[in-house]
């Protein structure tokens, strides 16, 4: 099993523990990856506000790189997954637009035909690798733990671009994978909500209210931690939880925000240092001690 | 069509509804969930089921509806947690095996009774964006003549039926009542891009500067997902952001954020997170820069501060060339 690897900017920046834990899990599962080292940032929807054509062109260029290798793309980030899927969906629907973009890419020798599949590691583990086979690698049961799932907007919307018409069950994969490690996936109403990261530097008051609402209510519902496939959600929910909870609930940050691959790695018995659990702002110690 | 034909042959199915009730006249315990089980044809809509309950089972159930054909936009409510027009939603689509349907009033609206919400705030926000044409002068020939092409862009915005589903699901309105909101901002774009209107810059400046304006949207896509008419309010807000920048409305953190993002991706092919945080705050905005220090220090101690010198995509000059070419072609 081999994929064109697109780790995204944040896994190489603010969340190095996401990259190390993902690579550790992939190695155990013998899933081969070849990084698209020339690929650009997806633009995260932000670049698209100012320069949508540049954003789409960079993304189609990435899709074309994978197409050249005849490999599907593996992402580690809900936002990368969503924005690449949106660009893919857009050019598959609008052939004239694809032609315009291919014209821009011609000089570099790329021509995208529209055949690349883009898949988040979460989808790959469930759809391609299979949860039963995955469970064979687990040596530790996380049965005493309760996790709140938090998907990240772009993993669930727009459903049309994410293939939910054919695979509606993708909206339940995070719960499924939490249950596969033996933990309890709590029914968390905020699981498809916005973490507030996109407006962190624009309207911090609103962003912090979102952080406080989600982490506070997950804690109230009995969660030991929140599990997310999105490093941007992690950055906001982990990094700003202290300030958000103090400002809006008058309490303290007490909900660790675990990257989905870190949870898998814990069940595989991989060393906590290797998967960067000590790098979190909100301590993960209690979660680790409960295993 | 095929489903409907099959459904006609299926006969009757039992539908279980759990409906959120609210009676403002009750002094206490005035919010509760009530279960209803009724027999109904599988191809019926959820609205059919609710009307059946009101007419045959419980006349006290309050709900609002009119056209029953997804034209009037009156019957918005939450079905299993997501806002929908219930006249457009078939029972068998949502509960094919007779699962319980959870029916609640729309979110981000004040509830008047049961499933009926107050739309005064919704229309106040529509009023806020001056929802009518403002031409500088009267047309010479008695009417404004516009080309079909110039009206094409408005077709999606003009499909809005003011049902309020986008407002119900808006993640910003959940935390900030001052946000103008997806419906009113989509309506604003309908006037910004209308060739008969002469207040384009004034409108864009207002939407750019006003508290709760275009830059407060989180781009969470909830409004795009639930809109029953394909208006895609978030995409309309993104159009407005692009247009506001084009007329030079740049004194917002939102502009600095997107501008920094573009500069970083163009220069390096990758995002420079440190530069994004500093430039979004404003490089001369001392108080906002100081505000970044505590989290920055914590990240530094934990070894997760983004690199001061950003990662670059291999062969990043190719992305610079692409950006240059797109700029030249504009």
Give the tags.
heterodimer; A: Glutathione S-transferase Yfyf (Class Pi), Chain A, domain 2; Rossmann fold; 2 domains; four-stranded parallel β-sheet; 8 strands; B: 330 residues; alpha+beta; Ubiquitin-like (UB roll); Fumarate Reductase Iron-sulfur Protein, Chain B, domain 2; two-stranded antiparallel sheet; 15 helices; 7 strands; 43% helix
SSE topology:
The complex is a heterodimer of chains A (291) and B (330).
Chain A: E1 2-6, H1 16-29, E2 32-35, H2 47-50, H3 52-68, E3 73-75, H4 78-93, H5 95-105, E4 118-120, H6 121-129, H7 131-135, E5 146-149, H8 153-156, H9 173-180, E6 184-185, H10 204-220, E7 225-228, H11 231-239, H12 241-248, E8 257-259, H13 260-268, H14 285-290
Parallel strand pairs in A: 1-2, 1-3, 3-4, 5-6, 5-7, 7-8
Chain B: H1 2-10, E1 13-22, E2 31-40, H2 46-57, E3 76-79, E4 82-85, H3 91-94, E5 100-104, E6 110-113, E7 116-118, H4 120-128, H5 148-152, H6 155-158, H7 165-169, H8 182-192, H9 200-209, H10 222-226, H11 233-246, H12 253-268, H13 273-281, H14 286-301, H15 317-329
Parallel strand pairs in B: 1-5
Antiparallel strand pairs in B: 1-2, 3-4, 3-5, 6-7
What does this structure look like?
The complex is a heterodimer of chains A (291) and B (330). By secondary structure, chain A is α/β, with parallel strands linked by helices. Chain A has 2 domains: 2-120, Glutathione S-transferase Yfyf (Class Pi), Chain A, domain 2, CATH 1.20.1050; 131-290, 3-Layer(aba) Sandwich (Rossmann fold), CATH 3.40.50.11810. Helix content of chain A is 47%, strand content 10%. Chain A contains 14 helices and 8 strands. Chain A has helices at 16-29, 47-50, 52-68, 78-93, 95-105, 121-129, 131-135, 153-156, 173-180, 204-220, 231-239, 241-248, 260-268, 285-290; strands at residues 2-6, 32-35, 73-75, 118-120, 146-149, 184-185, 225-228, 257-259. In chain A, 59% of the residues are buried. The longest helix of chain B has 16 residues, at 253-268. Chain B is built from 15 helices and 7 strands. At the A-B interface, helix 2, helix 3 and helix 10 of A face helix 10, helix 11, helix 12, helix 13 and helix 14 of B.
